[in-house]
Amino acid sequence: QVQLVESGGGLVQAGDSLRLSCTVSGRTSSSFTMGWFRQAPGKEREFVAAISKNAGSTSYTDSVKGRFTISRDTAKNTVYLQMNSLKPEDTAVYYCAAKWITSQTYNYWGQGTQVTVSS
Q1: What string of DSSP letters covers 8-59?
Q2: Which of 9, 29, 66, 67 places its Cα 20 to 30 Å from the Cα of 85?
Q3: Hey, CA dihedral for 52, 111, 42, 100, is it positive or negative?
């Protein structure tokens, strides 16, 4: 059974940084494309970033480009989201997700970690 566990959320001030971690168990993380999503209160969940199976490519939503960096450590079965220059509009619950290469949608989700950015 594949499980994803996020950590690293918290309350920070605008301009600060946070690093989120997502540890994969039950299967090696290198089996998946990994992504980060977020959901703010009253809004739909949105894509934030993704990293390919071999870390050869990454993608980001426009609002975080240049501020967020997704990376993965296969040896630790962990994916990271480094978030710099945080803004109040980044406040959301952040979810880690995993997708089989052949899948059109994400197959596994973590429970989420809260990120709150105060102005």
Answers
A1: --EEEETT--EEEEEEEESS-GGGEEEEEEEE-TTS--EEEEEE-TTS--EE
A2: 29
A3: positive
